[in-house]
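call fold(seq) -> tokens
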Amino acid sequence: MILIVGSAPDALRVSDWDTSIFAHRVVINNAWQACDTWDCLIYPEDFPQDRHPPVDQTSGRQMIGANEFVPAQNQFGGVVYAGGTMAFTAGYWALGALKPDVIAYVGCDMIYDSRAGQTTHFYGQGRADPLRQDVTLQSLEAKSARLWALAQRQGCSVVNLSDQLTSRLLFPRVSWQKLKVMGIDLGTGFSGGFELDQSAADEALLAEAELAYRVPSGRYWEMASGFDKTKLSHIDSLWLAAWRAKATVPS
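ret:
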């Protein structure tokens, strides 16, 4: 069971948790400041060096850059289909490299309050990276459904520990208290009241293969002008169907 921590304001809740229940604690970008028990830091090529943790805090810990996470993304179809933002990148890297039975997210809801003076990240105002104009991020919900579906096929449950009212992640919600009690039992097929429509997932994977938008380097923005936005949107709709089609209302 692993934890993935983003930089939303509620990431600070982690400081009150006993994170020893996780085999790994993966932090994204600046989130190492919110989780002092982190052991894996994943960051993109443009993450400023002055935002990295001090060298004396990295001993015995993994620093995961593009050389590590791009091959992991490619195992799962590549960044164009996975979605070019670090919340999903971290999930696919963890799924491929750590092979967990449970991935629990916190601080990754990708909801940004635009009102003046409102903080967007636990450290203050940050860049709402997932909301940029990007052909791979037309539907954050669909990208989360894809990650959830592929994890389910690998025998891994993906859950959201957020206590926020809204989230762009479709992962089933689980409270911190429930996770502490259930622990790895969530990995025995826990779906949080939803079922994966296998035929819809097969159709989505087939559509991806036929479109064949492969960018082995991970630098998809160098080729984005050749991507068909409408066809990628259609694939998003297939992943949403895989998540929705057999959904039931949790009791």
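Residues 247-251 have pLDDT under 50 and may be disordered.
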